[in-house]
Predict the structure.
Amino acid sequence: MTGEADFRTPISQLEKEVTQKREKIWYASYGSNLNFQRFRCYIEGGTPPGSTHTNPGCRDKTPPSDRRPISLNFELYFAGNSAVWKGAPAFIRDGGRSALALGRMYLITDDQFNDVVMQENDQEVSGARFIPSFEELMRKDKFELPGDRLYGHVLRIGEQDGWPVITFTTKKVLTINAPSKAYIKVIVAGLKDTYPAMTNAQICEYLLRAEGVHGHMSPEELADWVSEKL
């Protein structure tokens, strides 16, 4: 009718939005995001246990449609310093054929993955495209995000149920450093939830293989942290 605003969304835009919601990514985590309660803060927003930083969450706050354990053929290590966690965060790097990082993957939308990566790199969740297009993520194995980003090295490490399995780490040369007790406890809670058959001793053995833990704290100190509840 004349004089009335037309609030209808163009069909092409609707089709684009539907397609984006249909496109899925398995985000493979290996650090604090092993802990589902912590990862939820990247999706829904909130302050995770042990942290003082509040995440805004994704624009789409729908929970992951699936989550599963995953073993990554990478070496876990801790380096640099996180102002949020007051210690070194976790990263992964090539470590040979026998390298193993225990992970957990979440099935989320392509748009949600974009917003998670933005939050991990201290970017405002503005709706802008920060990561490569979904088509590129399906086609290539390695990507470097623009700018000097801490988590700027994006890796496609496989495929599950037709969707790409993607993780991210750093290519920065950072000083090996010890993680904080709060950070380790969040990781430990995630390991216990993801791998319920693991004993405290096995978790200690796994973490002690990582640089930043090995040589930076005693096995006895780590065992005390692992045995404490979050």
Observations:
- Confidence is low (pLDDT under 50) at residues 1-5.
